[in-house]
Amino acid sequence: MSECASTACGCSAGPIIQPTTQAPATTGSAQAVYRIENMDCPTEEALIRGKLVGLAGVVGLEFNLMQRTLAVRHELPSLFPVEQALTAIGMQAVRMDQASTGQTTKLSITKMDCPTEETLIRNKLGTMAGVADLDFNLMQRTLSVRHADQVLPDVLAALQALGFEAQVLDTAEAASPSASLVTTPTNWWPLGISFVTASAAEAVYWLHNGNHWSVVVLALVAVFTGGLSTYKKGWIALKNRNLNMNALMSIAVTGAMLIGHWPEAAMVMVLFALAEVIEAKSLDRARNAIRGLLDLTPEQATVQQADGTWREVGAKQIAIGSRVRVKPGERIALDGEVLEGRSAVNQAPITGESLPVEKSPGDPVFAGTINESGSFEYRVTAVASNSTLARIIHAVEAAQGSRAPTQRFVDQFARWYTPIVFGVAIAVALLPPLFMGAAWLDWIYRALVLLVVACPCALVISTPVSIVSGLAAAARHGILIKGGVYLEEGRKLRWLALDKTGTITHGKPAQTDFVTWGNALAANSRSIAASLAARSDHPVSKAVAQAAQTDGVALLDVAEFSALPGRGVQGQINGETYHLGNQRMLEALGQCTPELEQRIAALETMGKTVVMLVSAKGVHALFAVADTIKESSRSAIAELHALGINTMMLTGDNPHTAQAIAAQAGIDSAQGNLLPDDKLREVELLAIKGKVGMVGDGINDAPALARADIGFAMGAAGTDTAIETADVALMDDNLGKIPTFVRLSRATAQVLMQNIVLALGIKAVFLVLTFTGQATMWMAVFADMGASLLVVGNGLRLLRK
Ligand SMILES: Nc1ncnc2c1ncn2[C@@H]1O[C@H](COP(=O)(O)OP(=O)(O)OP(=O)(O)O)[C@@H](O)[C@H]1O
Ligand SMILES: [Zn+2]
C-alpha cells in the first residue's frame, strides 16, 4: 500500500489534478479531496460509494473518474475512518488538499540509495505519529515527507538514529534539478587493506593446512576494515526488526567466524563490500544519465547591458526579457525567441532530431541546443531553472520516483522472499542435527550459505536501473515519459487513435478554392468571411484569413464575435449576423440544400475541408482549404502496423476529408465529424479491445487524451502545458517517435524479464546446491555479486538504445 501511495504522490505533483476548491455545500462540513490512483472505472466508484455512504459523518461524495479524484464532504474530526475504509477495499488514496494536513519537506539523504534502506526508513517513519506520507526517490536520494508542522525535528532525529544524515532542501532547491552530478564517494583504502589481509588469511590457512592464530588475526582485520559499515547498518536493521542484506551478511559472516571458517568469513566480507561499491557506481551511472543532459547548457551567455554593451553573464543570473547573443557553433544557454538574425539550430538535445532547424525572428529557441551556422540575438523567455530542458529533466526525475508495476511486484516479492529463506536457514541449522543425527557444524554452515542466498539485492536493484535507463534513453530521443508505468505499458498498445489536424497533417492548411454561391458579390463575401476568420486561431480560419490577406482583401469590423467549437465562427458585420463554418453548422442553420451538399462532397473527397459563409439571406460563398500530410506520418503509420498496432483517425473534420487523408497516410480507419466528447467515446470503445493510446495536439483532444491508457502530446517543446499534462510528451511533431517509444518499451520489458529470470535463477541454483552440500559461502557471495553486476549491466544497456 505504501508504495502505491508514493506513486500517487509523484503524480499529484503534476498540475493536471487540481484539488476541488468548491465551498462546502452544507455549512459545518469540511471537504477532503483524495486522488485514488486505482479508481478509474465505474465499478470502483460503486465499490467506494457502497463503503463510504454508510459511514457516520460522511455527508457527500463527489467522484471524478477522469481525474481519479474523490471529494469527501464530512463532519468528522479526523479522516482516519474514511482512509481506513478506502484501504480496506484496496484503494490507494492520497490526500490532495495537503495544505490542511501539514507540510511537505524534501530531504536529501546521501547515504540512502538502495531499496533495503528505503524499507528501513519506511518502517521507522511510516508508523510515526504526525507523518502522513513518504515519497522516496532512491535515484535522487531524496525523501519527501508530508508531516504535521511540528514533527520535522522528530523525523530528522529518527533518521539520525538509523544512521542517516538528512539535509532539508529548501523549496527552490527541491523544485529545480541541480546541475551537479551525484556520485557516491568511495573509500578505497579500507577496502584495499581488507582485500590484502583476506587473501593473506586464505594463503596462510592453505600453507598451514588449517587455522593458525595469524589466520584469525588477518581475518579479523579483513572483516573489520572491509565490513565495518556493513556491521553498523546490519545492527541498525536488526534493532528495527528488519532483515536487510546488511543484517543477513553480518549474521552470515559472524556465524562463519564462530564455527571457525575464518578465511572464508574474511573473503565473503570483502567480496560483499566490493559488490556494494560496484553496485553504487553503476547506479550513479544510471542516475547521471539524465542529469548529464543538463550539462549541455553553457554556464555563461553574452547578454546586452543597459548601456547597450555586451557582457558575459552566468546563465543563472539572466532574467526573462534579457537580450542574448549567440555565435556560430555556440550552445544556446536559455529558452527564448529569436529577435534578429538567422541560423540553423541542432535541436537534438531536446527533440532527439539532429537535422538542423531553420530559425528566424519570432521562432523559439531552446536551452541546450546548438547553434550551427549564423549568429543571432534572442529574447529570454524563461529563467535557467525553468527552461524546457530543465523541465524535461525534472519530469524524468519525478517519473523515476513513481514505481512501475514490475517494481511493485519485485518489492512485494522481496518482502516475503527474505524472511522465508531466513526461516528455512534456521530450520536447516537445527532440524537435521537434532532429528537426524547430522553434524552440527556442517548444517550450520549450510544455513549460513542460505543467509547469503536470501539476499534479494540483485533482484530488487535490477528493476529501477532498467526503468531509469529506459526513461533516459527515451529522453535522448526527444520522448518524455512521465512514469515507469507508461514505459512498461507501451509494449501492450493495441490501438493508436490519432487526431488529424496537426498530428497527421502539418496543421497549416491553405485555401484552395473560393466559390461564390447564390447572388452575392465575390469581393464582399470574401472580406466578410476573412474578417470573421481573422478573429480565430483555428487552422481552417487561419487559411481563409491568410489567403484574403495575400490578395489584399480589406477587413471589416466585427461585433459579437464567438467561436462555435467543432462548427465554425459567428459575428455581426454592418448589423447583420454572419456564420462561417462547416456543414454541421449549415444544417443547424437549416440552410442545407442537395445542390450545395453535392458541391461540398465533391471538394471533400479530394481531401479538402469546406466552410461556408452564411447569413439569414442564405449561403454566400464556399471556401475550401487543404492541408498536407507530413512525410513522417506515412512511415510512422507503416512502422506502427508492423509492430502490430492498429490505427484509427479521429477528427472533427468531415468524414470525406477524414477518409481521404487517412487513405493517404495509410491509416486503417477514420471517423469524422467528432466533437471532443465523441472522440472520448471512440477511445472508450477502442479500450474495450485492448490498450489504447491517443495522440493529439489540440484542446478538442484533451478528454480523449486523458481517457486513453497512454496519452501522447505532440510538439511539446514549445508549449508549457503539454510537458506537464501528457503521459508521454513528444518533443517535436514527428509521429515516428511513437514506434520508437513502443520499441523502447518492448526492449525494457525484455530486459526486466531477463533480469528477473537471471536473479531468481541464480538463487534457485544455489538453493539446490546448498541442500546437496556443494555450495560454499564465498561461492554464494560471488554468485550474488555476479548476479547484481549482470542485472545492472543489462539494465544500463538500455541507455544505448
Ligand atoms: N474557428 C473555426 N473556423 C472555421 N472553421 C471551423 C472553426 N472551428 C471549427 N471549424 C470547422 O469545424 C470542423 C471541426 O473542427 P474541429 O476543431 O473539431 O476539428 P479539426 O481541427 O478540423 O480536426 P482535428 O479534430 O483533426 O484536430 C473544422 O474542420 C472546420 O470545418
Ligand atoms: Zn545480495
From TrEMBL:
Membrane topology: Multi-pass membrane protein
Entry's EC annotation: 7.2.2.12
Keywords carried by this UniProt record: ATP-binding, Cell membrane, Membrane, Metal-binding, Nucleotide-binding, Translocase, Transmembrane, Transmembrane helix
Molecular function as annotated in GO: ATP binding; ATP hydrolysis activity; cadmium ion transmembrane transporter activity; metal ion binding; P-type zinc transporter activity
Catalysis performed (reactions): Zn(2+)(in) + ATP + H2O = Zn(2+)(out) + ADP + phosphate + H(+)
Transmembrane segments: 213-231, 416-441, 447-474, 751-771, 777-799
Gene3D superfamilies per record: 3.30.70.100, Calcium-transporting ATPase, cytoplasmic domain N, Calcium-transporting ATPase, cytoplasmic transduction domain A, HAD superfamily/HAD-like
Main location: membrane
PROSITE patterns: ATPASE_E1_E2, HMA_2
GO CC annotation, single: plasma membrane
InterPro entries: ATPase_P-typ_cyto_dom_N, ATPase_P-typ_P_site, ATPase_P-typ_TM_dom_sf, ATPase_P-typ_transduc_dom_A_sf, ATPase_P-type_domA, Cation_Transport_ATPase_IB, HAD-like_sf, HAD_sf
SUPFAM superfamilies tied to this protein: Calcium ATPase, transduction domain A (SSF81653), Calcium ATPase, transmembrane domain M (SSF81665), HAD-like (SSF56784), HMA, heavy metal-associated domain (SSF55008)
Keyword Electron transport in annotation: no
Enzyme class: translocase
Cell location: Cell membrane; Membrane
Residue span, HMA domain: 30-94, 103-167
Family indicated by similarity: Belongs to the cation transport ATPase (P-type) (TC 3.A.3) family. Type IB subfamily.
Protein name: P-type Zn(2+) transporter
Organism: Methyloversatilis universalis (strain ATCC BAA-1314 / DSM 25237 / JCM 13912 / CCUG 52030 / FAM5)
